Amino acid sequence: MGTKTQPQQAKENERRIRANDKEFNLQYKYHNNYIKTSKYSVFTFLPFNLLEQFQRLANFYFLCLLVLQLIPAISSLTPVTTAIPLIGVLTLTAVKDAYDDIQRHLSDSQVNNRKSKTLRNGKLVDAKWSEVQVGDVIRLDNNQFVAADILLLTTSEPNGLCFIETAELDGETNLKAKQCLTETIELGDHHDALWNFNGEILCERPNNLLNKFDGTLIWRNQRFALDNEKILLRGCVLRNTQWCYGVVVFAGVDTKLMQNSGKTQFKSTGVDRLLNFIIIGIVLFLVAICALFAVGCAIWEGLIGQHFQVYLPWEHIIPKDYIPSGATVIGLLVFFSYAIVLNTVVPISLYVSVEVIRFIQSFLINWDEEMYYARTNTYAKARTTTLNEELGQIQYIFSDKTGTLTQNIMTFNKCSINGRTYGDVIDLRTGEPIEVTEQQTIFHNSPRNHEEVPTGTATSTKQPPLILVHKAEVHAKKSSVMVTAEGETQLASSPSSDRAEMEHSAPLPAPQDPQRNRGRKQVRYSAPSRSQEEEPGGTIPGRLPTPRGSSPSGYDSQRSSSRSSGGGLGVCFKRSGPGLMQRQLSSTNSSDKALQCVDFSANPHHESDFRWYDRTLLDAVRSNEEHSHVFFRLLALCHTVMAETVEGKLEYQAQSPDEAALVAAARNFGFVFRSRTPNSITIEVMGRKEEYELLNILDFNNVRKRMSVILRRGNTVVLYCKGADNVIYDRLHGGQEDLKARTQDHLNKFAGEGLRTLVLAERRLTEQYYKIWRTRQQEAALAMDSREERLNEIYEEIESDMQLVGVTAIEDKLQDGVPKAIANLQSAGIKIWVLTGDKQETAINIGYSCQLLTDELADVFIVDGNSVEEVEKQLRQFKESIKIYNRFRPGGTEALYNSDSNMDPLSVTMTQTSVFMHESSSPPTPPPPPAISVVTFRWDDKNKDKKGGPDSAECNDLFGDEKRSLDDGAASIVIDETTGFALVVNGHSLVHCLSPELEIKFLDIASQCKAVICCRVTPLQKALVVELIKRAKNAVTLAIGDGANDVSMIKAAHIGVGISGQEGLQAVLSSDYAIAQFRYLERLLLVHGRWSYYRMCKFLRYFFYKNFAFTLCHCWYSLFCGFSAQTVFDPMFISVYNLFYTSLPVLSLGIFEQDVSDKNSLEYPRLYTPGLRSELFNIREFIYSVLHGAFTSLVLFLIPYGVYKDGVSQNGYILSDHMTLGAVVATILIVDNTAQISLYTSYWTIVNHITIWGSLVWYFVLDYFYNYVIGGPYVGSLTQAIKDLTFWMTMLITVMVLVAPVLAYKYYLLDVHPSLSDKIRQKSLKKIHSRASSDVRRTPSSRRGRRSVRSGYAFAHQEGFGRLITSGKIMHKMPQDFAFPLGLGTKKTQALHNNLASADQTKASNSSGHHMGNNNNTNQRHNQNQNHSSMADISAEGRAADAGGSGANDDISPRAPCQDLDTINL
User: What's the CA gap between 976 and 980, in Å, rounded?
Assistant: First the structure.
């Protein structure tokens, strides 16, 4: 008994695992590694699927109806009329569900059948992931996914280190270091030793905490503590490590990845939920009508019907002795009879049609070529067929960052060196920056791309060579700095005015007239609220003029991402002398400009995929320009990158993609990082090897926001530092004001372009000062009290009085079209939240880069409190800030619009407040219009009556009244939609924000912010945020992501979209829709989502109309048949009315209908707003359809009844018989349906024509076939009726009475209250394509060039790698194996290093924020003009040991000091 209860007790309290002991682990019944996302199996499909389908109210209703029809006494219709449609609907839905589940089975099989090397019986075998068990020892190779949560045992690295990428878990692409126990390192890759490993692991139960693991390893009668640093989680990827072994701790659903995945929820659309509510109402209405008719029938039978029993005998079950009781029984039976007769109010065909429409709409999404991504050969895929119309009602989008908005690629984009920017290329004719895209194209290069063409020289007719270049697109800019042919920099005003002047200038090859350039006075910056007059001479006040003949660096140029302009010139450069560039203009015949990238092939270590287009920087490096050499030497030395040679090729292993990009840039420009040891760094500068002694690494952390290295070469000691701009600027020495001002301007420009910036600085130290500092650092490292504070002060002291070197600008490359997609989605009224596991600075930087955040925002609130009280205080302060802003903000939209009553407030162009676009056909430039300051949107009293509450009010304020948009001739108003607030929340603060006491305050502030970014969030927190918005705001949500860390968020949202990217398939497998790029989300929502919602709503309105028009005819007829449940139509007509006569036209409407084209849907995002407010189908629209159908049925019955009652034909035949009336009413009903749907259709296709007119013909064909071939009871009725003129006149009058009100109302709305889509169609008909005055979306290109006063700092590096380097743990060989290069190490320096080893390993954090005193009195700066020396000036003679430390020559050691390897316990 004791042996049985022990496992149970262990399972409740802890998890006990024994390595390589399958029988021991089986007794605890741990889950295996099998993953299942499917819902059915072959045996459970039929019962479970039927149970799920009958949970739908409509299906259950029709099942009950079928049971009633099986009772002959109460059924006037055959059960076949209900059985066949019901079986059809169940079968169709079952097939669809089976197809979806088969796809899930295939996806599960793909994951479960992945191979993993598992140790079995001492041998390594390939096992499927699904076969991996808890306690198995598995091997992982480099770049391989981790199959399960494993305890790391041993790695290929000598110190038990391995590196993993956790993008699938937390979205971070920077590498993380893990280290196994030192006791298990000895196992190595010896299979016998690993198989004999029988350690027992006691650990926590499965949970979703990614950053926490508590456990104990019992091995060889010893206990070893286990923490998260020794665990590799499923979903991680092994990087930069040849192999590693681990024992499985959690498998399958117990892994932390799956614990964070959340549960699969049943998803239904808002239309489905509304339909369920409407069906309940219809059923209640049906019950009321049936009850009314039952009472009427009982009264009629009791008063009148009893006297006609000879002709209308009562059923034998009805008591005939007592008339009231007999009449009551008849009334009760009639109640059920009418329930059967009137059941077509909610026909089963409605659900058949809805499923068919959704199914076909899903294929339209799958077949859309505009969402095809050629690079990965991936189409968009609708993985569900039940949520299409929900895509047209999205109110909140929750997006991941890494891999969803970005490409996980860092590129060295621009830089600033000694106050001059590099990286911009300017078109000399137009002054427009040339933005280079990644798309490669074949460009027939003109001969003048290769040789200089003098002015007036005719173009050669020689066939140009065919070369492969990167396509460069020239984009229109509001204002920019251009470099004239004379080499001077000047600001161009608007491109249009420049082009107008160009048209009147000299021929193409001729340079611009400098006199005209100097005469241009109106020059405007794109910086906020700044304009300047250009000084004579064409230079910019406060700027250094570019030397004549130098190449256009374009340090004030701007980068944009707008659409390319046609025609124009490319720019090519040619060296014509030392340091000089001759610029040439090359005409192209295409609309795109082509530009060759700089050729780095002269550098044997260059990277073929590195792209740089500004030739001047490479020329400066090759001409030994001092500042550029210092810049790249710093990049090549100040980092923690590791270098290794793989197959003869130098490769870098970087802890963060930022560092990889910077070191790669230095490598391509000739400063190649070659190798490192714990105490040295070797680089190659322009082919010459340079070796430096690494004295210290002052590592990066989130508080310091900088990292430094201290190096010695010869007798010179230099500190190199890189970090955030505000941190570095505070630590620069005086006398650099001009350089700092120019560099700050470049920082603002880079930040405005969304680039990630780092400021570089250096400081030269004397040997004496460094020795004193090193001694004090040792004392601080050994201090028992306030060690970190004292170390921080020491670091502050040496990282001061630095010389500014320059700025790097790295682009965290966004996916193509992300800014435009976000701008359009926001213009459509959709709120976008970014939920990422990345760092705060990185998340904010990407927010600016993708224009989710802009510099026009009034404020960006950052919530980073560590306690509930701190978070509550911050939220309260932010709330007050919003109140103050709303109280004192400018007059808002009313004040703006009242200035000119003729101005249409919605015919506006969203531009930035400080950039003025003005196009003029005449050369003189009129004065710019005044800047409009701030227009914000709020929830106030006047909006309270609007349906939907604050969310709807926000949409209303954002888009206003659609009726007033797109007015012809309306003046354009410059209005900015981006003013407002943004909210940034850290993960640890989000825990408190989601608590019950603060969630209301959090939502209150978040709902008033234009954008919300949550960083450092766990996958489960992502799902909680989505659930909060769903619950509290009752909003339709969409979650989009590409990794396993996004699965829980995708499952929690109403719509889940997976990016089929590089992070695996977990997100796609859990998603409802899969797309290849984020930009396709714009088309998925604004085109397919809007169309699906529009079509479904129009389908439902017409469907209910035609069915009420058909069904209620029985109600009017009951007044004339004694409420006997007699049908006015032929029973066969009732059965096939929705199946054959009217199904195809309404299906065509639901599949192909569209109000505007896909192009207009994207151009006018406000077309999406009706879906946000559920305007196209709601209770009001349903009631309107019911009333319209009731009116139609009344006219349909009464006019023919009045004509044919007591009617006689010209031949003397009596017309007043039941069958003739039924045939006439049925025919007029079909004709009216045809006329109504013809008026209802806006977009005609050949399918619409065939189905609409074909159904009318089909009615007559089927009626003839049924009555004459099969022999129906109504044979001859319609044939005789159509022979008489009475029928045609009756049909004409009836149809005219029914159609006339519809036409009148339709044209009234079109003329008096046209919708936005109506106006767009009118403009399309008039072929007016004036988008500039009617487009209400903000222009992405107008944002990219803005200067920003914010910091562009973002660095994905993590603390700890500097200590790994200096300790030697990260090296592939032990530190004692390293020979010190060139004999730089002396006995004294060895002793110094050995004595201070532990101090080197102490973590430095908590930056003090103020300058420490400068004790380096010998390090005075005498040159204030930045003529500082660099490490390149250090002579070879400086390698000798300094005199103060001289000793016997035989004491010089050729090896580096062996530092303590156990200082760091990772």
Answer: 10
Higher pLDDT, 781 or 440: 781
CB-CB contact of 1412 with 792 (8 Å):
no
| Pairwise CA distance, residues 1284 & 1295, whole Å | 18
Whole-number Å distance between alpha carbons of 909 and 920 = 17
pLDDT of amino acid 1138: 83
Pairwise CA distance, residues 162 & 1172, whole Å? 49
Report yes or no: 112 and 130 within 8 Å, Cβ to Cβ. yes
User: What's residue 1197's pLDDT?
Assistant: 92
Report d(CA 110, CA 37) in Å as an integer: 12
Question: What one-character DSSP code corresponds to residue 343?
Answer: G
> What backbone torsions phi and psi does residue 904 show, to the nearest 5 degrees?
-85, 115
Q: Which residue's structure tokens are 């503590």?
A: 225
- The whole-angstrom separation of Cα 254 and Cα 149 is 9
Confidence of residue 626 (pLDDT cuts 50, 70, 90): very high
User: Three-class SS string for 88-107?
Assistant: HHHHHHHHHHHHHHHHHHHH
Task: Note the pLDDT tens digit of each residue in 64-98.
Answer: 888 888 887 777 677 776 787 788 778 878 887 88
Q: Where are the alpha helices (DSSP H) in 1244-1348?
A: 1246-1264, 1277-1282, 1285-1312, 1316-1325, 1341-1344
Any idea what the Cα angle at residue 1242 is, between residues 1241 and 1248, rounded to 5°? 50
Sign for the pseudo-dihedral over CA of 1121, 1125, 1127, 1128: positive
Outline where 1071-1217 has alpha helix (H). 1080-1083, 1090-1118, 1131-1136, 1143-1152, 1158-1163, 1169-1172, 1179-1204
Edge-to-edge, what's the strand order for the sheet holding 680-685? Answer: 420-422, 406-417, 803-814, 756-765, 716-723, 706-713, 688-698, 680-685, 671-677
Structure token digits, residue 1421:
């700066």
Neighbours of 1244 (CB within 10 A): 13
Check if the beta carbon of residue 1211 is closer than 8 Å to that of residue 1200. no
In which band, very low, low, confident or very high, does the pLDDT at 53 lie, cut at 50, 70 and 90?
confident
Whole-prediction pTM = 0.68
Does an H or E element contain 1232, and which? Answer: helix 1218-1240
Of 3-17, 341-355, 729-743, highest mean pLDDT? 729-743
What is the predicted pLDDT for the residue at 907?
A: 37
CB 1461 within 8 A of CB 1368: yes
* pLDDT of the residue at 17: 92
The predicted pLDDT at position 1073 comes to 93
CA angle in degrees (0–180, nearest 5) for 1043-241-116: 60
Angle between helices 57-69 and 80-112 (to 10 degrees): 140
- Give the length of the chain: 1466
Nearest Cα residue to 910 out of 1010, 984, 832: 1010
Active site positions, annotated? 400
Round to whole Å and give the CA distance between 491 and 533.
Answer: 10
Tens-digit pLDDT profile for residues 273-324: 888 888 888 888 989 999 998 898 888 877 876 777 767 776 666 766 666 7
Dump the DSSP string for 142-210.
TT-B--SEEEEEEESSTTSEEEEE-HHHHS--SEEEEE--TTTGGGTT-HHHHHT---EEEEPPP---T
Q: CA-CA distances (angstroms) from residue 488 to 483, 484, 505, 552?
A: 6, 5, 19, 9
CB–CB of 31/252 below 8 Å? yes
Query: For the segment 188-245, what is each residue's pLDDT rounded down to a tens digit?
Result: 888 999 999 999 999 989 988 887 888 899 998 888 888 888 999 988 889 888 899 9
